Amino acid sequence: MSRATERDAALREHALRLLDAAGAGPAPIVRAGHPALRGVAVPFDGQLEGEELDGLLALMHRTMRAAPGVGLAAPQIGLPLAIAVLEDPGVTSEHVAAVRERAPLPYRVLVNPAYAPEGDDRAAFYEGCLSVPAYQAVVARWRAVRLTGADETGTPLDEVVTGWSARIVQHETDHLGGTLYLDRAELRSLAAADEIGMRWASEPRPDGAAEALGFALGAD
């Protein structure tokens, strides 16, 4: 048996154990310091059968919603496989939605995704992570990216994603390469999710935080 075959068999066994342990509930989310968050995820290449993949995606979707979050990558439940799920209901404030370009993002699956900047514009906003709970920090990300990869049916993806949806795509795809949002963050902006931190994070743009905490927004 080749190393790749052994690796794929181990991934399948790991996924099935996660499904069995979770039952109808969510999976535990691993936190910063777990090795799965710092490795490069293995490309999905049929390691799971159709019903097994459906079960994994359903588990990831439940876990993301229960957290709650707007995206979840397989390494965040300890499975180093290049799959992520995304879903964002958006925000109620029309002003905040307009400033952040945060339109609702219907549930979707990314398999073996990659992104590249589309243009030179970046936008800087507060961002958090289910694997780094209780904190948030400002990250300047590409305003638009070209997303490639496939969906859960194997249909190829090649599209331009903009605004907050592009931020989610970048955050979750970064997870598959072993990168946490803190690796890209303006660390002077780091704030606990307490009264002050939530006030900074609730600003349409983090202008007040930048002035109070002494950092540049870092957006073009």
UniProtKB/TrEMBL annotation:
<dbReference type="InterPro" id="IPR036821">
    <property type="entry name" value="Peptide_deformylase_sf"/>
</dbReference>
<dbReference type="InterPro" id="IPR023635">
    <property type="entry name" value="Peptide_deformylase"/>
</dbReference>
<feature type="binding site">
    <location>
        <position position="171"/>
    </location>
    <ligand>
        <name>Fe cation</name>
    </ligand>
</feature>
<keyword id="KW-0378">Hydrolase</keyword>
<protein>
    <recommendedName>
        <fullName>Peptide deformylase</fullName>
        <ecNumber>3.5.1.88</ecNumber>
    </recommendedName>
</protein>
<comment type="similarity">
    <text>Belongs to the polypeptide deformylase family.</text>
</comment>
<keyword id="KW-0408">Iron</keyword>
<keyword id="KW-0648">Protein biosynthesis</keyword>
<dbReference type="GO" id="GO:0006412">
    <property type="term" value="P:translation"/>
</dbReference>
<keyword id="KW-0479">Metal-binding</keyword>
<dbReference type="GO" id="GO:0042586">
    <property type="term" value="F:peptide deformylase activity"/>
</dbReference>
<comment type="function">
    <text>Removes the formyl group from the N-terminal Met of newly synthesized proteins. Requires at least a dipeptide for an efficient rate of reaction. N-terminal L-methionine is a prerequisite for activity but the enzyme has broad specificity at other positions.</text>
</comment>
<feature type="binding site">
    <location>
        <position position="175"/>
    </location>
    <ligand>
        <name>Fe cation</name>
    </ligand>
</feature>
<feature type="active site">
    <location>
        <position position="172"/>
    </location>
</feature>
<dbReference type="GO" id="GO:0046872">
    <property type="term" value="F:metal ion binding"/>
</dbReference>
<dbReference type="Pfam" id="PF01327">
    <property type="entry name" value="Pep_deformylase"/>
</dbReference>
<feature type="binding site">
    <location>
        <position position="129"/>
    </location>
    <ligand>
        <name>Fe cation</name>
    </ligand>
</feature>
